[in-house]
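Supplementary Methods, section 5.1.

A reviewer requested that the exact input to the structure prediction be made available. We therefore reproduce it here, unchanged from the version used in the analyses.
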Amino acid sequence: MKRLLALSSWGLSISVLGFFVSVLMAYPWASRFSLMGQVIAHITIPLWAAGVKLFYVLRLNVLRNIEKGFNDLAKSSRNAT
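The structure derived from this sequence is encoded token-by-token as follows.
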């Protein structure tokens, strides 16, 4: 679980960073890039957004499974006493 949580955290961070860089390349800094660079920036915006959604959902599922493990552990310790 820790490995998936770390993967989802890193993926989420990279996706958010990539999204913001693509938005900057596509809009405020568009005059600094060639037409092909602007096209690539516009194409990558929804790809980075999909990455954000994917890694966020992965993170939510991992955290939910960790929480279930803690709840099961708490229930078993209450039943043992």
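The chain has a mean pLDDT of 93. These observations are discussed further in the main text.
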